[in-house]
């Protein structure tokens, strides 16, 4: 059998030519064995019909096996020649022939170095694509945070609107003035609280001395 892988032929036929020849060889060999069994059976029947025959079935089997080996030896030689012819002239694609799916290589030929450069460029593009996807995910997360902040701001605005309505109900029309008034009163209350706390501390210290 030929050791040439014949990969291009395998691409075209869908199987390797060597595999095809091996199957043909096995089929011929099986047919040869079956044929010899039929011949042996016919000989045995003929001998049974002949009275006084001194040839035993075991002798017939030995002769059949010798004849089979003789035929197989000649068959292997003939098949070897047939295989060589078929692999060269029938199952062989000339090196100057391109398959239809490989026409693109003829239109856009690339050297090994150019192909390597294309692979590197492809890897860079894949990395850029991954980076863009990661950036997109980060933007989505930031948008979610902005939505949450906007929701909190909406709540604050609603609270201010409610406070302004309360001020109007109690006769205070200017919310800014009311808010400033509340801030001043709150500061006065804080100052008064500090003063009370300081006096309380002084009284505690005076009681401890007594």
UniProtKB/TrEMBL annotation:
What would be one Gene Ontology cellular-component term for the protein? MIS12/MIND type complex
The subcellular location is: Chromosome, Centromere, Kinetochore
Keywords of this protein's UniProt record, alphabetized? Answer: Cell cycle, Cell division, Centromere, Chromosome, Coiled coil, Kinetochore, Mitosis
| Keyword Nucleotidyltransferase annotated | no
Can you tell me which residues the record assigns to a coiled coil? 108-209
On whether ATP-binding is a keyword of this UniProt record, the answer is: no
| Cross-referenced Pfam families | Mis12 (PF05859)
| Record InterPro entries | Centromere_Mis12
Report the principal subcellular site. nucleus
Query: Which family is it part of?
Result: Belongs to the mis12 family.
What protein does this entry describe? Protein MIS12 homolog
